[in-house]
Amino acid sequence: MDGALIIAKGIHKSYPIGRGKRHPAVKDVSLELYKGETLALVGESGCGKSTLARILMRLTEADSGEIYFDGDQISGLAGRDFRPYRRRMQMVFQDPASSLDPRMKVKDIIAEPLKTWHIFDNKAEILERVKELLDMVELKESALERYPHQFSGGQKQRIGIARAIALEPELLVCDESVSALDVSVQAQILNLLKKLKGELGLSCLFISHDLSVVNFIADRVCVMRGGMLCETAETEELYANPRHEYTKYLLSSIPVVPGMQGA
Amino acid sequence: MGMNDFWKLCIKNKSVTVPAIIIVSIMLLAVFAPMITQYDETRQDLLMRLVPPQSGHIFGTDELGRDVFTRILYGTRISLSIALFPTAIAVAVGTALGILSAYFGKWADFAIMRLADIMLSIPGMLLAMVVLYTFGGSLSSVYIALVLMEWGSVARVTRAAAEGILENDYVLAARAMGVRGYAIIFRHILPNLIPSIIVLFTVNIPSSILAESALSFLGIGIQPPKVSLGLMAGTSKQFLFQMPWLSLAPAGMIMLLSLSFNFLGDALRDVLDPKRRAV
To answer: Which of A93, A144, B148, B225 is 20 to 30 A away from residue B87, measured at CA?
Structure first.
């Protein structure tokens, strides 16, 4: 791990809830994501972890705070100045059904980022790259001409991952990317993400509410509650020796099958 | 879905082909009217007034001895042009404004939607009458009246549909990968709106036909010597009980056209919805 890819300092974000009141979604969050690591952001639903991820990707604007990407301040950059950073960070979404346009063929879905950034000059090269990406996410070439509704949830998520890595980003944000899937499919997707991370040298921000999933994939964990970070630690350290009360509570709520040791 | 797949599915589907064949046949009859009938739609034959249906005059003649079948063919031309052009313009304008409203939100949304509310708060027929009295009862003022009547509801429906589309993660994904606004509109919003647009278009066609018929029936739409289906039904209402074919023939044509477009709209919506299609 050499240096920080993302540094966030004092991020605040609140949403209006009517009658002039505002609900704080993210309160004074600072974190660092080092190059090559997988940082997990855990917490219950509504604790602000997705909002934080979107702020880091500048899909939502923070009220205050600073964000640095690879040493450059990206918070406050105008649209045109920020654009070069766009392709360096990509996202895999929670709901595989709504994250793929139902009217586009798989080849067009995966080709969209390539076309947007004019990475290739002609269609043949784009198709070649799309096939390569399909192979990387372990889908067959027959998927090219099909529509998203013809695939299972796990397969759709693979298509979403292929789209996200098409631009060879440095940062991959996975927003609850396996929580909509069956447990066995979760494992396949997690293994795929781990494999791709190794092959592509990705850094990964992994958002989840599931501590056993996090234990499998993350190097470090940030525990979030009510918009604030309450504990950041190495994964093994956190599981072996949780310091914050809330972390202990979360760990104690992992279901345990009687007769089995640990997760 | 590619256009080839779309055509294949349409051809296989009877609930698309049957109304489509009816509509195309009516269009052909209207376009080739001069070759189908030997009469002229305005030529009067005072010796042959109000004759009942018979060979040579399959729907009889009217009070001035004009052949009713011929007049229906020519009237259908006007009714079809009114069905297609102003409806297409209203749907295009309404869709564009609805998408802009949903995409930009804020003041653009406010301005467009309040304007639509104002147009919708005026009863359609009243609005049409104002336009027709101001610009006179010509074909182009009927067009203007129908566009003004219909764009507002189209804008409202497409805005709601576009807002629903914008909430999908694939739009967020597009933003995250740096797709620009116009490309999001044309690549993601518009294609996903097509089923709604087709349904709006086909639902508005019968209401355009009916609105024109009503205006002409009241005598403020299409003016003689031009002939439209509504105008024929209107002028022949005094003979309704003695010579019902005079009213029933144009009314039947209005009904056939309206129903065919309605059924076609429903069937196309089913074909265009990928989730309802058999895989």
So the answer is: B225
